[in-house]
Amino acid sequence: MVHNEEELPKENISAYISKRLHLSYSYLANQFSKATGVHPRTLYYRTQNRNGQKN
User: Fold this and answer.
1) Can you give 3-54 as a three-state secondary structure string?
2) Average pLDDT, stretch 43-54?
3) CB-neighbour burial class of residue 19 (10 A; exposed 0-12, middle 13-18, buried 19+)
4) CA 14 from chain center: how many Å?
5) Is 7 part of any domain?
6) What is the pTM of this model?
7) pLDDT category, 27, cuts 50, 70, 90?
8) Fewer CB under 10 Å: which end of the chain, C or N?
């Protein structure tokens, strides 16, 4: 998925990945959590806070 200011995605990244992999977001999030010890949503919020953006 390439982000271009003129061509922003029409769906959020979790829906995009779920659709492309034919797996539910819940399953993917659980697998990510098992592998990293962090839920994807938590990681997203930490990243947003580090970049000085509001949630």
Assistant:
1) CECCECCCCCHHHHHHHHHCCCHHHHHHHHHHHHCCCHHHHHHHHHHHCCCC
2) 72
3) exposed
4) 5
5) no
6) 0.60
7) very high
8) C
